[in-house]
Amino acid sequence: MTNDGNYKKSKIGNHRLKPETMMMSYGYNPQLSEGSVKPPVFLTSTFAYQTPEEGEESFHIMAGRKPAPQGSLGGLIYSRFNHPNVEIVEDRLSLFEGSECSVVCSSGMGAISAILLAYLRPGDVIVQSAPLYGGTETLIRKFLPQFNIETGEFHDGLDEDDMLTSLRNAGKKGRVAMVFNESPANPTNSLVDFEALNRVLDTIKTETGHRPISVCDNTLMGPIFQQVVPQGIDMAMYSLTKYVGGHSDLVAGAVCGSLDMLRAVRATRGTLGLNLDPHTSWMISRSLETLSIRMQRAADSGHKVAQWIADNAYINAKILHPDFIKNTVYQAVYKRQCSGPSSTFSFVLDISKSDAFRLINNLSIFKSAVSLGGSESLVCHPASTTHSGVSAELRDKFGVTDGLIRLSIGLEHPDDLIADLDNAFRLTFAAAK
């Protein structure tokens, strides 16, 4: 969008505006859209140039043959490459993440694919944390090897020696080009220590002359309770479908990082046709205005629900919620990296899959569905759904057992959610006691 010098206002005098304030106006100039307070939906496939010289210049910039002017991505060309609605979302998401820029894609998996295809080549090795979201596991473990890209993993993101040993072992297969981690992990809420990971990557660079690119799936916490790019991670990846979209009515993804790091990702997005459509982009710009208060409210309710499950009178439960994981190393990393717990967590019961299904069937407010971060509360059995494509051996290894049940706490009153759980636990387990 054309910069009139004021539509990206971030300060009043010496006072720096908070992201929550800038969500209402940053990156949009009403005077370029008939004075409309809210951005319109720009339903167009292509954009007109005032002169052919302007068109030529725009294509040079888009193709990377010339640098874009300072503070600009270049002119609007074609909606597969860019359009005003997606640029507004990219500007505003970057404010929350604390990154220089963002690239928005048509889904979370589209964002991950753009990252991997931009930076991995045959013969490279990608090392992942474990567990990852089931779709990411499938992409890395089953899709990439078809293109001669090797894989490796580390099991404990809180153990610096384990991460270093894992990367060294992976390096025996080829050049370790990337480390992809999910922190907190879905569905166990396990963490990766970013400070330790950065030291490991520095060591690998000293030993090999190449520093692997680091990527974090920040969907569960971010961008409100954790910002990973300011903590030294090269790229933050998001499924915007979840908390950022926040209403279970859209599918989108994003990558945040530096302008230089995302240049190849943006080019890959355009080449593969992974850009997000204008209407969905507009919906996300609406959702960003309430993101902070939605996530704060849901997190408060999530803590209360987790406390009830921990104290329930029916059956012993292990709570995989950041506030309830009793590990001193975990808690030190959690307090250093995060400012809150988000509202998605799991609990583990010593029960069979059929008993887990009975418990879920006895719930009435919680909807049995995959995904998370919406305004409604959801319950999910990952072993039979989101992680069913992962081998049983790996699921057991990562703790994604038949007795693990994941909750995404929404915006209902927490007392009602607790009453629903109490009724379901009573119906499922009281008769057995």
UniProtKB/TrEMBL annotation:
The lineage of its organism: Bacteria, Pseudomonadati, Pseudomonadota, Gammaproteobacteria, Alteromonadales. Keywords: Lyase, Pyridoxal phosphate. SUPFAM superfamilies: PLP-dependent transferases (SSF53383). Its EC number is 4.4.1.11. It is an enzyme of class 4 (lyase). The keyword Lyase applies. The keyword Lyase applies. The modification N6-(pyridoxal phosphate)lysine is found at K242. It comes from the Bacteria. It comes from Paraglaciecola arctica BSs20135. This is Methionine-gamma-lyase.
